[in-house]
Amino acid sequence: VQLVESGGGLVQPGGSLRLSCATSGIFFRIYAMGWYRQAPGKQRELVAAISSDGNTNYTDSVKGRFTISRDNAKNTVYLQMNSLKPEDTAVYYCNAKRISPPSNYWGQGTQVTVSS
């Protein structure tokens, strides 16, 4: 199983980035997918999630700015991040989760830095 994130980088406040997470080795369409982030000295937190049938949820701090989406044909999940703020700076991780049977996979992370 592989989850490979890409699209991170350095961006100025107010800018945009699009993260991608390409998966292999799982039956992608039946997995719930999520984006988490971890800033230095802080716990990893859920940023956005999308269920296998396309329902989405977001942490309050990114509502209206971030959009999660999935392309089942490409086995890929995306995170469009707009109006980025310095407090969005973190390592962003992709997650694939299945309830039954239970399975949980993580990517290696991609750094997002928002700074002028």
Overview of the structural elements:
- The mean pLDDT is 97.
- The protein has strands spanning 2-6, 9-11, 17-24, 32-38, 45-50, 56-58, 66-71, 76-81, 90-98, 103-106, 110-114.
- A hairpin with a 4-residue loop joins strand 7 and strand 8 (76-81).
- It is mainly β and 116 residues long.
- It is built from no helices and eleven strands.
- Strands 2, 4, 5, 6, 9, 10 and 11 form a seven-stranded mixed sheet that branches. A four-stranded antiparallel sheet has the order 1-3-8-7, with no helix packed on it.
- It is globular and about 45 Å long.
- The termini are far apart.
Q: Can I get a quick summary?
A:
0% of the residues lie in helices and 53% in strands. It is mostly beta strands and 116 residues long. The mean pLDDT is 97.
List keywords for this structure.
mainly beta; about 120 residues; about 0% helix; four-stranded antiparallel β-sheet; single chain; seven-stranded mixed β-sheet; globular
Low-confidence stretches: none
Strand content is over 45%
Largest sheet: 7 strands, mixed
Average predicted local confidence, pLDDT:
97
Radius of gyration: 13 Å
Number of helices: 0
End-to-end Cα distance: 37 Å
What portion of residues is helical?
under 10%
H/E topology pattern: EEEEEEEEEEE
Shape: globular
Structural class: mainly beta
